[in-house]
Structure formats: structure tokens, C-alpha cells
Write a structure and sequence with these properties.
It is a single chain. By secondary structure, the chain is mainly alpha-helical. The protein has one domain. It contains four helices and no strands. The protein has helices at 9-18, 23-51, 56-64, 71-79. The radius of gyration is 22 Å and the shape is extended.
Length: 80
């Protein structure tokens, strides 16, 4: 990870808040931030689910649909 200067306000605030933390406290803070981000992502996913009117049947269809690109086939075609 690279550090970019100047730091933005969020980065500066976090540095100020964490300057005196012990290693154990830093680990706890990391866990809290990860839990916060996971909860936020879950809320966004739930909003999308409702907005797109998805159902369990939609998810089953997604799971049964092959949507990946076949890179080996593409590579063979590019060699020709």
C-alpha cells in the first residue's frame, strides 16, 4: 500500500484518533471498521435486491447461468 500526500481529512482524522493506540486497541479498531464496512455493504446489497425486485428464483437463475468469459477460447482465437 502506498501513502499519498497530502492526506485527506478522513485520513488525517484517523491518524489523530489512533496516534496513541496500543497494538491490541488498533486490532479492535480494525475489527470495528471492517464490521462497519460489511454492514454498510449488506445494506447496499439489500437496497439493490429490493430495487431490482429480485427473488430467490432470480438468485437460482443467476447461479445456473454461465456468465464467465471463456479466456482459453478467446486466446486460441487471437492466435489465429
Amino acid at each position: 500500500m502506498s501513502i499519498q500526500f497530502p492526506l485527506n481529512e478522513v485520513q488525517l482524522s484517523l491518524l489523530r484518533l489512533t496516534e496513541d493506540l496500543k497494538a491490541e486497541e488498533l486490532d479492535e479498531l480494525k475489527d470495528l471498521i471492517i464490521a462497519y464496512k460489511a454492514e454498510r455493504l449488506a445494506r447496499i446489497a439489500d437496497q439493490e435486491w429490493v430495487a431490482r425486485e429480485w427473488t430467490e428464483a432470480t438468485m437460482s437463475q443467476f447461479l445456473a447461468t454461465h456468465m464467465r468469459t471463456s479466456y482459453l477460447v478467446d486466446q486460441e482465437e487471437n492466435k489465429r
